[in-house]
Amino acid sequence: MKHYLDFEKPLAEIEGKAEELRALARENADMDISAEVEALDRKAEQLLSELYRSLDPWRKAQVARHPERPHTLEYIEALFTEFTPLAGDRGFGEDKAIVGGLARFNDRPVVVMGHEKGADTHSRIERNFGMARPEGYRKAVRLMDLADRFGLPVITFIDTPGAYPGRGAEERGQAEAIARSTEKCLRIRVPLISVVIGEGGSGGAVALATGNRVAMLEHAIYSVISPEGCASILWKDAEKMRDAAEALRLTAQDLHALGVIDRIIPEPVGGAHRSREEVIPAVGKAIEEMLAPLEKLAPEEILAQRRRKYLEMGRKGLAA
């Protein structure tokens, strides 16, 4: 069963009717209804194109959260070879909301990591819906230290509503762990490439995304707070999330114009979840094109370039 978003309900009706006709044709071999099915398919394709031609920020947020979007482990499986997962922060325990380890990307050794939301109810609970605890960020720091020590590029995939705000996480130093991870991103002397593949929520995203190059999928979002959280604070009404999404400038297009990200990776019509075989290779190509020039730089210049990137971003914001 496909999962349809609220604004896709008219599309669900058309595609549902087409599927019913196909099922009827399978049961009645002598019945020829191919013309009707083709007409419905054309109508669905046209409607899908119209719906996704001009998504507003709130609809983009819905698409970014679509449960069937490819997640980090799918990108790792498709784009990397010899992936060896590494677990634990060597201090408290293992956090399955962040996965990472050693791998090869286009036959070069790298460290790859990212948030993992899970693909079904069991795995989503196990992964805490991609909301990492302090031990997850401390694991990320450990992996970045490893990459720095052995001169391995770091590639990160960002897909989280935000860091987990529970009592246990706060007691174990959630804010400090996020800050340490962000600091480590700024200090390593190897290339760091980050791709926002779904949600980039608050410090929980920044802790893995403070890279030399940051890309976003076309319908991904990246923001200091969720639209619902922003609406609850500013308007005391979570139902104002559409206004909040507009005000937050959280879309890839807005953030590219502001200079917060470096690249937008196009998605197929209907979103990444409708065509994995198209979007995953596109992400791989973008990573290669961002990584290759950085590998030619000396470690000192890689570090200096990254620092300049974020210092200039702040200065531009103050000037504006």
Written description of the protein model:
The chain has 320 residues and is of the alpha/beta class. It folds into 2 domains: 6-54; 62-319, 2-enoyl-CoA Hydratase, Chain A, domain 1 (Alpha-Beta Complex), CATH 3.90.226. Helices cover 53% and strands 16% of the residues. The protein is built from 14 helices and 8 strands. Strands 1, 2, 3, 4, 5, 6, 7 and 8 form an 8-stranded mixed sheet that branches. The longest helix has 21 residues, at 299-319. 41% of the residues are buried.
As a percent range, the share of strand residues is 15-25%
CATH homologous superfamily (4th level) name of the largest domain: 2-enoyl-CoA Hydratase, Chain A, domain 1
Could you state the oligomeric state of the chains shown?
Answer: single chain
Radius of gyration: 21 Å
Number of strands: 8
Instruction: Provide the helix percentage.
Output: 40-55%
Give the averaged pLDDT, no decimals. Answer: 92
CATH class of the largest domain: Alpha Beta
Structural class: alpha/beta
- Helix-strand string: HHHHEEEHHEHHEHEEHHHEHH
Any low-confidence stretches, pLDDT <50, length ≥5?
none
List the domain count as a whole number.
2
Largest sheet: 8 strands, mixed
> Count of helical segments?
14
* CATH A-level architecture of the largest domain: Alpha-Beta Complex
- The name of the CATH topology of the largest domain is 2-enoyl-CoA Hydratase, Chain A, domain 1
Distance separating the two termini: 47 Å
Shape: globular
